[in-house]
Amino acid sequence: MITFEGVTKRYPDGTVALDDVSLECPTGKITVFVGTSGGGKTTALRTINRMVEPTGGRVLIDGRDVRDSRPAELRRGIGYVIQHAGLFPHRTIEDNIATVPYLLRWNKKKARETARELMERVGLDPGMAGRYPFQLSGGQQQRVGVARALAADPPVMLMDEPFSAVDPVVRGELQAEFLRLQAELHKTIVFVTHDIDEAIKLGDRIAVFRTGGKLVQVASPQELLSRPADDFVAGFIGHDRGIRRLSFIPAAEAPLTERDVLTAATPVATARAAGDWVLVVGEDRRPLGWAATGALPADGVLGEARLAPIGHTFTVGTDSVRAALDAAILSPSGRAVGVDGDGRLVGVADQHDLSAAITAAVNAAPEPADTEPADTEPAAVAEPADGLAPVDPVPVDGPEPGEPAPAEPASKDGVPD
Amino acid sequence: MNKLWNQVDLSWQWLTASGQWHGEESIPHRLFQHLLYSGAALLFAALIGLALGLLVGHTGRGGFLAVSVANIARAVPTIGLVLLIVTVKYSITPQVIALVALAVPPILVNTFEGVRGVDPETRDAARGMGMSEWGVLWHAELPMALPLILLGLRTSAIQVVATATIVAYPGFGGLGRYIVDGLARNDYQLVVGGTVLVVLLAVAVQLLFAALRRFAVSPGLRGSARSS
Ligand SMILES: Nc1ncnc2c1ncn2[C@@H]1O[C@H](COP(=O)(O)OP(=O)(O)OP(=O)(O)O)[C@@H](O)[C@H]1O
Ligand SMILES: [Mg+2]
After folding, report:
1. Is B22 inside a domain boundary?
2. Is the CB of A10 under 6 A from ligand 1?
3. What number is the ipTM of this complex?
4. pTM, rounded to two decimals
5. Which of A18, B23, B103, B122 stands the most exposed, by the fewest C-beta atoms within 10 Å?
6. What mean pLDDT is reported for chain A?
7. Stretch 39-78 of chain B: residues touching chain A, C-beta under 8 Å
8. Residues of chain A contacting residue B124, judged by C-beta atoms under 8 Å apart
């Protein structure tokens, strides 16, 4: 756990980059810092590895003041990834990755073996080990940057806009792989971004910073979307935060029906009695396509008729209502097809079913704040308040609460890009 | 054409005459003197230029001052230096100091620029991963500045090798001896022969630095660094 206790940073020129920030970044979780440019995110991140020394307050890692360790030693135990990777151009990829192991005086063979293992881990061909950074694409360099930070297996990782310099497609891949990696490694990660979508996608907790180095709100993504602390946060999240919230409602909440679902062996005559569209499924219950009952051939079975493609399905259990709604909108019949993990039909829902489920879920939403100890969330419990008045976070005191385990209705995989 | 060929032929005869290869007056001995003075001057210049350049480049403090002083020193006409060397006859030390003064600025300026030119993000990453200040200098800044540093060293080395000819005037030998004597005696064979030797030495220095560059500069940097 990384703890900020009333951390303030005032530069000699008078700029206040951090203003009395108190915050906790739970062990094994991803805490994302978002906010306006110049809001102090980078500064806050860099106080953790002492690249910036606060002028007030203190930063603790697992209860230990970072100032108790010498900077170089402290940093060797903390992974560090920056925007343009900052690779050493004169070192090969494997030697770049092995930077910290070399500093820790591992033997060279072990260091390089580790480097190659990590290359595979982050999705790089180990055959590139002997290349130099200028021979890599931006996305590949960023992967090397992540591998380099992981090399000595530090428990804490600091990442400052690591994916912001690559194109959206590569960014999506990097984010997905990052989540997959984190699911295996359970590092305590502080991740800076100015992209609210990235924050919602990656963050277990999100800390919103505002110009002047003020921490405005700390909350889980769903809570941030449902209860922004003030107009600044609401404005920062954007007008489509309602739509984004759907990412956190599991599609399983929607009632699924088997209405107008017929097998491929069904005679056309039977199908004609159903609604406008019927969903045709195979023997194994895999959906084959939509058949328009008005355009069916004179006789034969459904499997011989021309079927309209399904578009995409949603997976019941992992996907969110957002994915289901998207599937419904794109479907020729206006209905979304829900399948299980093996691609077999679970049921069908139309847009009415989905919107009813959404209304029910939003109204019945358990207050997310209830699921976390109140004193870890000083800013979040404030009422969505009067305009611009910032909400001052209350410094944490008293014994550490246990690791908060926010209940997440939908898993991370269910969050669409 | 004939005349030119005559000259070449004469210098060849001069170079290959057996008397040139043995004893106090021989080419190897003079070459040795020349290399000794140039080498000593270059060594001191490299120590001063590298130390100051690295220090100033790394800390980022005093950069303007150092570069200004170096450039002013460069602007002092070489003729002044020549006069100084020619008039001082009692010891070789002032001569070498003059050569050092000539050689420091290119090394200092290039080292400084090389270190300062290191991508700040890379430097930040180096620090952020736990390198000490020495580590940052040694493992990041120095290797990345190396192409420019070698360029500075080469510029200085060639200047020093060429300028060291004039220590022959006050009587300290070296390859300049042939040129000075030749001019005094109107012996063109000697002048041309001496000049050819100095030019060959300069070419050798070029080759040495080209080899050094291949050997010492990381392939990861060769693509981007200026080479001429
Ligand atoms: N070395 C410094 N000296 C003076 N002011 C600084 C220094 N570094 C940062 N600042 C100021 O501190 C404030 C916070 O900067 P910081 O880099 O932490 O912002 P940020 O939230 O990371 O912004 P961005 O999204 O643009 O990266 C800014 O106003 C910045 O100008
Ligand atoms: Mg920043």
Report:
1. no
2. no
3. 0.82
4. 0.76
5. B23
6. 85
7. none
8. 51, 82, 86
Domain boundaries, chain A: 2-248, 251-364
> Per DSSP, what are the bridge partners of residue B85?
none
Architecture of domain A251-364: Roll (3.10)
CATH number for the region A2-248 comes to 3.40.50.300
Q: Is B2 left (phi over 0), alpha (psi -120 to 50) or beta?
A: alpha
Containing structural domain, residue B212: 27-224
Q: Is the CB of A15 under 6 A from ligand 1?
A: yes
The CATH number of residue B73's host domain is 1.10.3720.10
pLDDT digits (tens, 9 = 90+) for A379-407: 443 344 444 444 444 444 444 444 444 44
Q: Is residue B210 part of a domain?
A: yes
Can you tell me the distance from the alpha carbon of A263 to that of A288, in angstroms, rounded to the nearest whole number? 9
Say whether pLDDT at A365 is over 70. Answer: no
- How many domains are there within chain B? 1
d(C-alpha B19, C-alpha A108), whole Å: 56
Question: CB-based contact (8 Å) between B216 and chain A?
Answer: no
